[in-house]
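Quick one, T. Sequence first:
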Amino acid sequence: MSSARIIRVNELLKREIAVDIPRLFANGEFDTGAITVTRVETAADLRDATVYVSIFGHEEARSQMVRFLNVHRKEVQARMSKHVILKYTPRLYFKFDDSIETGDRVLGILAQLDIPDEPQNTDKGTSNDAG
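Structure tokens:
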């Protein structure tokens, strides 16, 4: 299968799953507002898809939240299959993605660094050497 098609399928699944999770689990004890679907990686045969989610806050409950999504993945798959028509509905596997937090941490470190700018030499044509 072409990589362009896989990319389109990944983006389609990402958008659909991001909409389906709050609709399915909004009334429970599950904080759906804290979850962001960051990316989806679908296998070439479209049978399996790994869904990477970022969870804002809830540091101590993240593994439980990902486990909850994996336990209820068939509900997400069923809803997704109604809106996304593919030859096969991929089996979903949810994994925690900490890339957003890592990026925020790096940006925070860079913001804390106080590196003064080096003075610019605007007089490039003159030389201080007398020779």
